[in-house]
């Protein structure tokens, strides 16, 4: 396997990558538990094939903390205005720290109340949201998480970025013991902005239909796309979903919205100030486990028995990421040359033991 330039990526063991990411976060002042949380979230994204939201973000996280634009040791402040509702002021915590705290609290509430809702104010980029909803399935919960992000998408009919890519993630426990959960993780734009950031980093063009430049013209130039806007998925429907997520994750908890959310890459004048919102539903409160598994199993089996289009395969969301995790745990996580060079520079900058890797 090689990249577009014909260069084979380095392979890194998951445990080694997590060791390195933890050490980096500790070097910039995070306590051990929070450093491990951030490392877990980033490496989980890499394990599941979401490399745009994995350790390619590590240097950004570390440098935002060093610049005082994300809190190394936040004071999480909770309030519980109703039995199944919690509000969290994350005090500018890194996104994974806030997201794990939020989902764990939603699960705790769901276990006692049947459902738990948590809204989070004043946080940062949270890596891939799938990690947190998958975490909830381990506690026999269905889970949904959304967040707002810096401006990337124009309102439908507009040409200037206003809303973020505003992702949503949902997970449901698998239909049998040992089966992977059903996992849906998607941006409300045609593509996550991280894919365009990665293309710009590697000097690649992007497909037509992903983005427009600053003048509203279609572009395949990744850098021009970053200066312009990513298009909403499904036209006005994607825009409407992004607006719904903005309300849940910014208006409800009291975080910044729309153009007031700062880009962590481009704006070093203040904190990002993004928000999160999550919901957990306890399956044992809804039905016996065997009934759930029978119902879901019947649905998934029927889906997979449907005739496939020529050259296509019917997949259950979450199955491919589970297979990728299994393969990367066995073979190692591939890191492209640009990401590896950035991590090497970060190691030297912070005095952290360099990342050990091998050629494929």
TrEMBL record:
Family from the record: Belongs to the LDH2/MDH2 oxidoreductase family.
Annotated InterPro entries: Mal/L-sulf/L-lact_DH-like_ah (IPR043144), Mal/L-sulf/L-lact_DH-like_NADP (IPR043143), Mal/L-sulfo/L-lacto_DH-like_sf (IPR036111), Malate/L-lactate_DH-like (IPR003767)
Keywords assigned: Oxidoreductase
Organism domain of life: Bacteria
Lineage: Bacteria, Bacillati, Chloroflexota, Ktedonobacteria, Thermogemmatisporales
GO molecular function annotations of the record: oxidoreductase activity
Protein name: Lactate dehydrogenase
